[in-house]
């Protein structure tokens, strides 16, 4: 399954940001679809952060993952972050998120990062299976989330 740079598929930016808006915008009251599209458009670097990857099946985008400098405004001391891991419902449980996360980890290593962080309230088992470790639970955006770290040197 190809995993490509969103930077190479600019027409997909509003499509992918629409997935993200529908999944997560309830945590960001007042945010708009246009603002989410603009933010994702700004996460389209090629050889540095922020960067976004898309998984393709039969040339259709089915999933995404980003590497960003900061994804949790309450934890500015931690950086960089894996963010916006998303797979379309019809394509779940066939390893696409696993492939996206593995790809993002390899890219972060290539950038010279030693650690990568994420927060989740829905997919800790996926990340544990991929070698991530919990740092602790904390309140964020109205929910209790788990902050996790991946040691990129092991
Ligand atoms: C969480 C999410 C990204 C997972 O995507 P996915 O592509 O289904 O993930 P994978 O297929 O790689 O792994 C999911 C599970 O399917 C299992 N799986 C993988 N391939 C499989 C296959 N061929 N057959 C059956 N199960 C399989 C994995 O073991 C994994 O189980 P686990 O969660 O107990 O570890 C997806 O459900 C999603 O987009 N959810 C909404 C957004 C979200 O919560 N994102 C995470 C933010 S931190």
CATH architecture: 3-Layer(aba) Sandwich
Helix content: 25-40%
Question: Which sequence of strands runs across the widest sheet?
Answer: 1-2-3-4
Number of domains: 1
Q: What would you give as the CATH superfamily?
A: Gcn5-related N-acetyltransferase (GNAT)
Main β-sheet, in a few words? 4 strands, antiparallel
CATH topology: Aminopeptidase
Strand content: 25-35%
Q: What is the straight-line distance between the termini? A: 26 Å
The strand count comes to 7
Mean pLDDT: 97
- What is Rg? 15 Å
* Secondary-structure element string: EHHEEEHEHEE
pLDDT under 50 segments (min length 5)?
none
Instruction: Report the total helices.
Output: 4
Features:
single chain, 154 residues, alpha+beta, Aminopeptidase, 7 strands, globular, binds coenzyme A
What does this structure look like?
There is one protein chain. This protein has helices at residues 13-24, 33-41, 96-110, 124-129; strands spanning 3-5, 51-57, 60-68, 81-87, 115-120, 133-140, 143-151. The strands form 2 sheets. The protein has a 4-stranded antiparallel β-sheet, sandwiched between helices. Strands 5-7-6 form a 3-stranded antiparallel β-sheet. Helix 1 crosses helix 2 (33-41). 27% of the residues lie in helices and 32% in strands. The two termini are 26 Å apart. The chain is an alpha+beta fold and 154 residues long. It has a single domain (3-113), classed as Aminopeptidase (3-Layer(aba) Sandwich). The model has no long low-confidence stretch (mean pLDDT 97). It binds coenzyme A (COA). Coenzyme A is lined by residues 23, 85-87, 92-98, 120, 122-123, 125-126, 129.
